[in-house]
């Protein structure tokens, strides 16, 4: 019985990974580190709940003052729940990178989602040196770890 559950779990996990896509830029020449002044929630993410908070965070990411990851998620999203612990782990591994968590169902953020062309969850967008260097759509843990290491090590 246990092996049947394990096999089903692996099939489901692999199907999430297989449907993931990634876009990455090869320009990775930024080395300045800075810290975020927003207070993170208990999870370690900086939770953006309003358009104003989102615009402030995006401005910091785009002006190059803050290496950051925008993590777009939803409470009902299974793959988002799968990737969340990995995002927390990577946040601890790369403390100079601020992870912004954006719930796509949060009221007042529809314009924010349109600005970054977010159409699926989970979506992670990686900023460094004022430029979006990569985007990952889906719960591909291996690609997520690879992008984080490549950009922020």
Oligomeric description of these chains = single chain
- State the helicity in percent bands: 40-55%
Main beta sheet strand tally, sense and closure? 6 strands, mixed
Beta-strand content = 15-25%
Please identify which CATH superfamily of the domain at 46-152 we are dealing with. Answer: Glutaredoxin
Q: Overall pLDDT, averaged?
A: 79
What is the tally of beta strands?
Answer: 6
| The CATH top-level class label of the domain at 46-152 | Alpha Beta
Low-confidence runs (pLDDT<50, min 5 residues)?
1-41
Q: Provide the gyration radius in Å.
A: 16 Å
CATH topology term of the domain at 46-152: Glutaredoxin
| Spatial ordering of strands, largest sheet | 1-6-5-3-4-2
Distance from first to last alpha carbon: 42 Å
Named CATH architecture of the domain at 46-152? 3-Layer(aba) Sandwich
Helix and strand pattern: HEEHEHEHEEH
| Silhouette | globular
Structural class designation: alpha/beta
User: Total helix count?
Assistant: 5
Protein name: Thioredoxin domain-containing protein
Keywords: Cytoplasm, Disulfide bond, Electron transport, Redox-active center, Transport
Subcellular location: Cytoplasm
InterPro entries: Thioredoxin-like_sf (IPR036249), Thioredoxin_domain (IPR013766)
């Amino acid at each position: 019985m246990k092996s049947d559950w394990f096999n089903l779990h692996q099939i489901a996990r692999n199907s999430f990974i297989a449907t993931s896509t990634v876009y990455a830029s090869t320009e990775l020449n930024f080395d300045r580190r800075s810290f975020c002044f927003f207070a993170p929630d208990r999870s370690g993410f900086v939770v953006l709940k309003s358009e104003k908070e989102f615009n402030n965070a995006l401005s910091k990411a785009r002006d190059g003052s803050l290496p950051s990851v925008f993590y777009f998620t939803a409470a009902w999203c299974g793959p988002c729940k799968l990737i969340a612990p990995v995002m927390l782990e990577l946040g601890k591994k790369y403390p100079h990178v601020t992870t912004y968590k954006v719930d796509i169902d949060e009221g007042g953020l529809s314009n924010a989602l349109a600005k970054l062309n977010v159409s699926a969850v989970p979506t992670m967008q990686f900023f460094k040196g004022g430029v979006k260097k990569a985007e990952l759509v889906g719960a591909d843990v291996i690609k997520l770890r690879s992008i984080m290491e490549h950009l922020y090590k």
